[in-house]
Amino acid sequence: MKRVLILTAVLSLFVYAKEAQNGEAVFKKYCWGCHHQSAMAFGPPFTQIASKRTPAQIKAYILSPKSMYKTFGYKRSVMTQLHLSRSELDAITRYIVSYKGK
Fold first, then answer.
1. Could you list the residue range(s) of the whole structural domain that residue 89 is in?
2. What single DSSP character describes residue 27?
3. End-to-end distance of the chain based on CA atoms, in angstroms?
4. With CB atoms 3.0 to 4.6 Å apart as the test, which of 18, 39, 43, 82 could cross-link to 34 if both were Cys?
5. What angle do CA 83, 41, 97 make, to 5 degrees?
């Protein structure tokens, strides 16, 4: 039983690490030009986004920035409409949320 728990924990860590890498790949492909992880760029850093938004809010804004910007109190939105797959959206959301509290 102990072996099963240890194996499960190790596999979970491996999967989580792989998902984080996928999130980083999505970040580098789509987000890096405007966002940085912890420094202000054209758009807010992930540390700021993660501290203010829930995962659901982050996903909603990524999916439809033009319809969500007023909901978040912005005067305008210049964020590009991204057409991400479900797995890319999940990966980038987890990646952004991983910067909460950093």
1. 2-97
2. I
3. 36
4. 43
5. 60
Residues present in the chain in total: 102
Would you say 27 and 89 are in contact if contact means Cβ atoms under 8 Å apart?
no
Q: Are 92 and 26 in contact (CB under 8 A)?
A: yes
Q: How far apart are CA 60 and CA 10, in angstroms?
A: 32
pLDDT tens per residue, range 8-23: 444 444 444 444 459 9
Give just the sign of the alpha carbon dihedral 91, 50, 30, 71: positive
- CATH number assigned to the domain comprising residue 33: 1.10.760.10
The two tokens of residue 77 are: 């939105």
This prediction has a pTM of 0.74
* 102 assigned to some structural domain: no
